[in-house]
Specification:
- By secondary structure, this protein is an alpha/beta fold.
- It folds into 2 domains: 266 residues, Aldehyde Dehydrogenase, Chain A, domain 1 (3-Layer(aba) Sandwich), CATH 3.40.605.10; 186 residues, Aldehyde Dehydrogenase, Chain A, domain 2 (3-Layer(aba) Sandwich).
- It is 39% helix and 20% strand.
- It is built from 14 helices and 19 strands.
- It has a 7-stranded mixed sheet, with helices on both faces. Strands 9-8-7-10-11 form a 5-stranded parallel sheet, sandwiched between helices.
- Helix 3 packs across helix 4 and helix 3 packs antiparallel against helix 6.
- It is globular, with a radius of gyration of 23 Å.
- Bound molecules: nicotinamide-adenine-dinucleotide (NAD).
- The site of nicotinamide-adenine-dinucleotide has 20 residues, from helix 7 and helix 8.
């Protein structure tokens, strides 16, 4: 496939049913992390812009909630068809502003389309239920209604997919939505939103960029917003949860992970390494479900470290638009410094690094395996959110499960074995929201995705993800 070229421009905001330039005094530069080149400047939402977004979403909700589910589904499906037509352009924008290889950007666009398509279909299956009545001539029903206007705050690592999860669920359920996209990656999300918006009544879907704290305060404090959904870091999630609690708003939080991988001695080692190297270094490791802590049976630990280390060192890094690139840069100079610092602190405590190579310019962090990691090393508790894996041997499965659970996060986990006993033990006792056994598929549109412990609460995708945008009403009718 030939590499497309696009003219990169920061988008305006989608406000009040129109694309308008943000009126904030401050603007933000957007950079290409592979080169450091300044791509454009992003106009941000002012306080007045945010008030317009709130008034618009209020009005649009009154209309959209009454649109029949079949029509909501049809409109969303037409938006998805547009999104699929524009994949090449959107994927190229994503690679330019975020850094991931173009093949990954195309896959992300396809995944975003799948997510919205699944939610669109699910709109037609929002059932209530009938409860057997206690009295003659009476009915007891459970009814479902859209919760109301939604504020969605989504991050820069998978800007399309993580916005699509929120947009698809909210719109399918009959809610209007104001999305704050990540300021680091504005153009790809705006291009996706444009495809959907062309099939929607004005104001149902709005997109803003701004000073994050100003946007979240304005939206969460407003009585118009009834539901908040956030994907990002634990400290910001805690802060937003506090604000949502103060205003008694429902909130879904997806706050990252530090996924354990348990590799038993009977696992197919080469297959495990092939799958996990690919999964670890996808998006330069900037994925909340990325496998990070590898607990490997001592009998096969040496072979595992050798094979994983060799595959790590063989990875080819470069700009995402180069078809030969297997791993791109991390998203920003700030993230580059943070990941390198975590590696350095862990090596200083005795972890043994096996390091790949990286270009000298741009925001690259070489893919790194840290072997024989001492239990106090910071990489075992701090989320690297970068191309870093760590490996430790274990002697018993109980010890591996205990070590895997000794971490504040609980999003995804992985297990490689054919032992039924091990599968039962790990699926019962590993503290995670999703577990893949002999594979890596922990996130699909039709299944719930969410964490436990510091990884947050609530689920996106699946029927649970739809439920997050619905209120329940019990009606008891006596004739
Ligand atoms: P950060 O805490 O600085 O920001 C995280 C996100 O929250 C950004 O999109 C930012 O714009 C937004 N944000 C910050 N303050 C906010 C506020 N007051 N109101 C609303 N939004 C606000 O983290 P970062 O350095 O950009 O990213 C690195 C960390 O974030 C990682 O360690 C990882 O844990 C987490 N993260 C997780 C995911 C995920 O998929 N769960 C995605 C991106 C980042």
């Amino acid at each position: 496939m030939s590499t497309p070229t696009v003219d990169y421009r920061c988008p305006p905001l989608l406000l009040g049913g129109e694309w308008r330039t943000g009126r904030h005094a401050q603007r933000l530069a957007v950079h290409n992390p592979a080169t450091g080149e300044r791509l454009d400047e992003l106009a941000l939402a002012s306080a007045d812009d945010l008030q317009l977004a709130l008034q618009t979403t209020h009005k649009a909700f009154d209309h959209w909630r009454q649109v029949p589910a079949h029509e909501r589904c049809a409109r969303l499906e037409r938006g998805v068809a547009r999104l699929r037509e524009h994949t090449e352009r959107i994927a190229t924008l994503l690679t330019l502003e975020q850094g991931k290889p173009l093949a990954e950007a195309r896959a992300e666009c396809a995944m975003a389309a799948d997510l919205i398509k699944w939610y669109a279909e699910e709109a037609r299956r929002v059932y209530g239920r009938v409860i057997p009545a206690r009295l003659p001539n009476s009915r007891m029903d459970v009814l479902k209604f859209p919760v109301g206007p939604v504020a969605a705050l989504s991050p820069w690592n998978f800007p399309l997919v993580l916005s699509a999860r929120k947009i698809g669920g909210a719109l399918a359920a009959g809610c209007s939505i104001v999305v704050k996209g990540a300021e680091e990656t504005p153009a790809s999300v705006a291009a996706m939103v444009d495809c959907l918006n062309q099939e929607l009544p004005p104001g149902v879907l709005q997109l803003v960029y701004g000073v994050p704290s100003e946007v979240s305060e304005a939206l969460i404090r407003s009585p118009i917003i009834r539901k908040v959904t956030f994907t990002g870091s634990v400290p910001v999630g805690r802060h937003l949860a506090g604000m949502a609690a103060q205003h008694l708003k429902r909130i879904t939080l997806e706050l990252g992970g530090h996924a354990p991988v348990i590799v038993c001695r009977d696992a197919d080692l080469q297959r495990t390494v092939n799958l996990m190297v690919q999964h670890k270094f996808r998006n330069a490791g900037q994925a909340c479900l990325a496998p990070t802590r590898f607990f490997v049976d001592r009998q096969v630990y040496g072979d595992f470290v050798d094979a994983f280390g060799a595959a790590t060192q063989a990875l080819r890094l470069g700009a995402g638009l180069d078809p030969a690139t297997q791993m791109g840069p991390v998203a920003s100079a700030r993230r580059q410094a943070a990941v390198q610092d975590l590696i350095d602190r862990s090596v200083a405590m005795g972890a043994r690094p096996v390091v790949g190579s990286a270009p000298a310019t741009g925001c690259f962090v070489p893919p790194t395996l840290l072997a024989d990691v001492p239990s106090a090393a910071p990489v075992l508790t701090e989320e690297p959110f970068g191309p870093v894996a760590c490996a430790l041997p274990f002697d018993t499965l109980d010890e591996a499960i205990g070590a895997a659970n000794a971490n504040p996060y609980g999003l995804a986990g992985y297990l490689f074995t054919d032992s039924a006993k091990a599968i039962l033990a790990v699926s019962e006792r590993l503290e995670v929201g999703s577990l893949a056994i002999n594979g890596m598929g922990v996130s699909v549109p039709e299944a719930p995705f969410g964490g436990v412990k510091d990884s947050g609460y609530g689920s996106e995708s699946g029927t649970e993800g739809m439920e997050a945008f619905l209120d329940t009403k019990f009606t008891h009718f006596v004739a």
